[in-house]
UniProtKB/TrEMBL annotation:
Classification via InterPro entries: Cro/C1-type_HTH (IPR001387), Lambda_DNA-bd_dom_sf (IPR010982)
Domain of life: Bacteria
Protein's name in the database: Helix-turn-helix domain-containing protein
Gene Ontology molecular function: DNA binding
Length: 92
């Protein structure tokens, strides 16, 4: 199931709803993920200044993924540019 994410609050709602659907308490989830309960609470409230790496760590551990919908008219050029950037980053 896909949900449109256009605000920090919405991604926080999805994370909180997913955690609750897994019947996990916030403190237990934070501990098993390796982040503080304070951080997880901030994410779930849609905090505007969260650490990206930790945000994706939380999402990964809850089995959530993010996709970007690129407009058709630039999709092919975006794919080519992304491939070049990925190759360049692998060489470093």
């Amino acid at each position: 199931m896909q949900f449109q994410i256009d605000t920090p609050e919405k991604i926080g709602m999805v994370i909180r709803s997913s955690r609750k659907a897994m019947d996990m308490r916030q403190d237990d989830a934070a501990g098993s993920i390796g982040v503080s309960e304070n951080f997880l609470g901030k994410v779930e409230r849609g905090g505007e200044s969260v650490h990206w790496g930790k945000l994706f760590q939380v999402m990964r551990e809850l089995g959530l993924q993010v996709y970007v919908d690129v407009p058709d008219e630039v999709a092919e050029q975006t794919r080519q540019n992304l491939e070049r950037l990925l190759e360049k980053s692998e060489q470093q």
